[in-house]
Amino acid sequence: MFDSFKSVGPDSTWHVKNEVPEWPESVCYILTPETCTPEQYATVENGTAIIKDWVVVGVNDGEKKISDFQPTGNAQEYFGREDL
Fold first, then answer.
1. Count of CB atoms within 10 A of residue 49's CB?
2. Which of 2, 7, 10, 27 would bridge with 75, disulfide CB 3.0–4.6 Å?
3. Mean per-residue pLDDT for 64-77?
């Protein structure tokens, strides 16, 4: 009955190696502090974080510039927003 089932390919795939993907940047969602790095949450606590839709998007360095914490494309896709 099962004699007609077969597949094509190597007997083993242990020789196939994939590169490890890059670790995604952290997205600091302030309602879940464990998603933030200590540096990111420190800016939330001291009031210098620029927050948009509950996500830290930058740091107020005195000139309202968005700096180090710009979300990556992954965050933009996750939140469905182009303007992050």
1. 21
2. 27
3. 49
Q: Give Cα separations from 71 to 4, 16, 19, 66 (angstroms).
A: 52, 33, 24, 11
Q: How far apart are CA 58 and CA 52, in angstroms?
A: 9
Q: How far apart are CA 40 and CA 46, in angstroms?
A: 10
Q: Residue 26 — φ and ψ, nearest 5°? A: -75, 145
Give residue 1's pLDDT band: very low, low, confident or very high (50, 70, 90): low
> What number of helices (H) and strands (E) belong to the chain?
2, 2
**Length of the chain in residues, anyone?**
84
pTM of the predicted protein model: 0.49
Please give the C-alpha separations between residue 12 and each of 8, 16, 25, 31, 54, in angstroms, as whole numbers. 12, 9, 35, 46, 48
